[in-house]
Design brief:
single chain, 8-stranded antiparallel beta sheet, Urate Oxidase, purine metabolism, globular, alpha+beta
Length: about 300
């Protein structure tokens, strides 16, 4: 049976690069995990084994490290733009480059006055601890003319210990869940947002400030929404971002409901007045949705694990 070659790409995945910027005695860290995927005129390498149009994946790896030195890493998005532009504009067979980046944040170690005699101020300026809140992610795609930049985060765990209810839902003979009028609402946020910057003639967003502001609006919406469902909270989080950040047209969230169930303490003669909970890790409800600026078509993949 005859076969044809379909969509294909290649590159070097998960290039870990750490860039230290030394500003006198004060150091700054950018810690990235960079994956490069290239596509274009690549039929021969699959069909005949000819490598004439194939830039080695080892070269893409070396480019990541060289660019960290040559351009620095101002932001994950800007670094990805440099890489994508380079691969598409310097290699004729390459028509499209996709750069995916995870960023791991670090913060400075703070010391109390009592410890200052053991740790000098110069040392504090270059001592860090890995942040445990979330992993920042981005995907930059370039085809020689148009850009698509999707940023986001994953593994950001948040909780409201009150101001959440869940009742009035459909019930059938298999329903055992009790209605809740004061419950814990917790989730582990995975979110992606797409910028409307698409060509070099547009003013480029301030990627670092945009990330900080998106996260701020996301968390504020989570905290300030009196929630009757996680779906309602999700929509408020996305709407707050769209309404406050003009550079963003689309937001997609995947929110697993990190269930907390009241423990029955009656067998021990104790009353559980919304104080003691069992934290269940699985199974869990998974709430996913896209929030769009009016008139905009969705482009973020539904399965965000592929970003």
């Amino acid at each position: 049976m005859p076969t044809i070659l379909g969509q294909n790409q290649y590159g070097k995945a998960e290039n870990r690069v750490v860039k230290i910027t030394r500003d006198g005695d004060t150091h700054h860290i950018k810690d990235l995990n960079v994956s490069v995927a290239l596509s274009g005129d690549m039929s021969d390498v699959h069909l005949s084994g000819s490598n004439a149009n194939c830039l080695p994946t080892d070269t893409t790896k070396n480019t990541v490290y060289a660019f960290a030195k040559e351009y620095g890493i101002e932001s994950a998005e800007q670094f990805g733009i440099h890489l994508a532009r380079h691969f598409v504009t310097t290699q004729e067979p390459i028509h499209r480059a996709r750069i995916r980046i995870e960023e791991y944040s670090w913060e400075r170690i703070e010391t109390s006055d009592a410890n200052s005699k053991f740790i000098g101020s110069d040392e504090v300026k270059h001592s860090f601890v890995r942040k445990g809140q979330e992993t920042r992610v981005s995907e930059i795609t370039y085809d020689g003319e148009n850009w698509q930049v999707i940023s986001g985060l994953k593994d950001l765990v948040v909780m409201n210990s009150t101001n959440s209810e869940f009742w009035g839902y459909v019930k059938d003979k298999y329903t055992t869940l009790q209605e809740a009028y004061d419950r814990i609402l917790a989730t582990q946020v995975s979110g992606r947002w797409r910028f409307n910057w698409s060509d070099d003639d547009q003013k480029m967003p301030n990627w670092e400030r945009s990330y900080e502001q998106v996260k701020k609006h996301m968390l504020q919406a989570f905290a300030e929404t009196y929630s009757l469902s996680l779906q309602q909270t999700l929509y408020q989080m996305g709407s707050r971002i769209i309404n406050n950040r003009s550079e963003i047209d689309e937001v997609r969230f995947s929110l697993p409901n990190k269930h907390h169930f009241l423990v029955d303490l009656e067998p021990f003669g104790l009353k559980n007045d919304n104080e003691v909970y069992f934290a269940a890790d699985r199974p869990y409800g998974l709430i996913e949705a896209t929030i769009l600026r009016d008139g905009v078509e969705p482009k973020i993949p539904v399965d965000m694990t592929n970003l």
